[in-house]
Amino acid sequence: MTPVSIKPDLRRIGASAFTEVLDTLLSLPVIVRESANGRPVAPDEISSSVLLTGQRLSGSVHLRLPQAFVAYAVRRLAGLDDDAENTKELQDDAAGELANMVAGRVAAKLAADGYPCKLHTPTTSRSASLPDQDQNGPAHGRTDLICEGHWLSLEIQCGYADP
Amino acid sequence: MTPRILSIDDSKTIRLMLARLFRPFACELLEATNGEEGLAVALRANPDLIILDYNMPVMDGIAMLRKMREDPGMKRTPVIMLTADSGLQSLATVARLGVRDYVTKPFREEELLAKVGRIIPLISRTEA
Question: Between A80, A97, A118, which is nearest B11 by CB?
């Protein structure tokens, strides 16, 4: 009989990683939503992604964040009083750094489940899309949170080398 | 003498965050955006402490540390590594390069201040 390996629960990992990052960095409580039903599309959203690669896994972590939330995070983190300094460039940088931190937590949890992996440099774009969820493609887990009144989304995708 | 801290991170958000964090203290904060630039600033300014990001473009934190330790005057400069990657492999690597401590991103501000305070005196500007 061929042993079947138990794959990580990506939704649980994502919810835990995202919550930890927001709590540690910004001391902000979050409400984890069971689904994305009712999620409004903010007029300006920022997507940031980090690739994960390891011997037994290749995957990615994607965040989708309203621009107003990222601007708020920049104000808190950098201590900026002047909105003129809260530039698009700085918000993109902050969104990338948030994705980097969430991906770091995700990677630590995947490693604990037997799938160690390395983080790549984050990329950021001004688009409101998360990767498509192909039922026949890599495993995926989506998490939607509400934080400070903003809907934030996280999608983890993982392709495994073992069956 | 006022301690000199060199912050090397490609993220402007993190550099601004550290600038805010150390503003109340009597210290001079220098900045660089990657390992190559950080190495040049370190060799020129001889900081009392370097807060170094692990994962950066151009030259990452590990490559910068290796180069820096080749300089006789920089062999013992204290370094705190910032990393989002808490994997055991990267922690073992930084330990071999004489990193004094590390902080996993995201970090609580008091955690970083406590670790810095164990290496250099952090005196409030109002007391200095």
Answer: A97
Residue A99 burial by CB count (10 A; 0-12/13-18/19+): exposed, middle or buried? buried
The secondary structure element, H or E, covering residue B80 is: strand B79-83
> Is this complex's ipTM strictly greater than 0.95?
no
Model confidence at B30: pLDDT above 90: yes
How many residue pairs bridge chain A and chain B with CB atoms within 8 Å of each other? Answer: 66
Nearest to A121 among B57, B104, B106 (CB): B57
Coil, helix or strand at residue B52 = strand
Q: What is the pLDDT of residues A108-119, one digit of tens each?
A: 999 999 999 989
Round to whole Å and give the CA distance between A99 and A107. 12
Lookup: tokens for A120: 């790549």
Helix, coil or strand: residue A63 = strand
Averaged pLDDT of chain B: 91
CA dist A43 → A1, A111, A129, B57 (Å): 53, 37, 12, 31
